[in-house]
Amino acid sequence: MMRMGVDLGGTKIELVALAEDGSELFRKRVPTPKNYPSTLDAIIGLVDEAEAETNQQGSVGVGIPGVVSPFTGLVKNSNSTWINGHPLDKDLSARLNREVRVANDANCFAVSEAVDGAAAGKGVVFGVIIGTGCGGGLSINGRVHGGGNGIAGEWGHNPLPWMTPDEFNSTSCFCGNKDCIETFISGTGWVRDFRRAGGEADSGIQISQMMSEGHPLATQAFVRYIDRLARSLAHLINMIDPDVIVLGGGVSNIDAIYTELPKVLPKYVVGRECDTIVVKNQFGASSGVRGAAWLWGKNEH
Predict the structure, then answer these.
(1) Beta strands across the sheet bearing 124-130
(2) With contact defined as beta carbons under 8 Å apart, do 244 and 277 qualify?
């Protein structure tokens, strides 16, 4: 049987069908309807089309920008707000007449890279998605570790470690707290910091391009960014000491991160030694949808 993964995003829903060896059998995306019943219909339609096209049946996993609460069984914390408050996994299971697994999209990213991506074969893999926001997911032995509260991997909503006086109480996060890691190391946070120092840019990628051209404010902003990223990841390493950290999202495409970050990490890791591997993702924007398919492990349907 094949594995089907669905990436339920704010603007598009994508389905990929994978063979047992991870090769792609089918892929299609459709615009995301902005209401719950139509979203269910769209997912069902993609599954039906994939099975008709491949002449196979398969398991179904869904990655969402939120989480199914283990307390209520309802989706919460999704920026696709129309799925909040609904039992998405149960509703899809009933419609498709099979169990459907639903997980946070950052957890799907971590699973994808752990199963057959940049961290293939590693036991404990932490996936970091750095773009407009800052997400995280944890995979252990190729499976999602969601935790008892369903929030494992939400490192971006801890406070920035070892804050300096000028950093303390300087940012506000949408989650309601101040000085969250996300507000400093997301692409959005990096741009805010650069502008605060007198620079002008619209993205972290643009700042990195300016740095490569010798722009002094951009270079200084990158040094601050790497130090904050190192502090944030060292906090994570001190707690779970993963085998590999895989970076995703737009900021992960900045090559200088992979040469400069390892130089700074040991400064903050307990014992002042650190050889934790930090790598760029292998599957890019496809990692989430592939990880949703791999919510069903080997020999499991």
Answers:
(1) 143-144, 134-140, 124-130, 244-248, 277-280
(2) yes
Quick: pLDDT tens for 84-126. 999 999 999 999 999 999 999 999 999 999 999 999 999 999 9
Task: Count the neighbouring beta carbons within 10 Å of the beta carbon of residue 264.
Answer: 18
Write the CB contacts of 177 (distance below 8 Å, at least 6 apart in sequence): 157, 159
Structure tokens at 230: 């190192």
As a whole number of angstroms, the distance between CA 4 and CA 142 comes to: 17
Pairing of strands 143-144, 244-248: unpaired
Q: What is the dihedral of CA 52, 57, 63, 64, to 10 degrees?
A: 60
Please name the helix (run of DSSP H) or strand (run of DSSP E) that holds residue 106, with its range, or none: helix 105-116
Given a contact cutoff of 8 angstroms between Cβ atoms, the answer to whether 8 and 100 are in contact is no
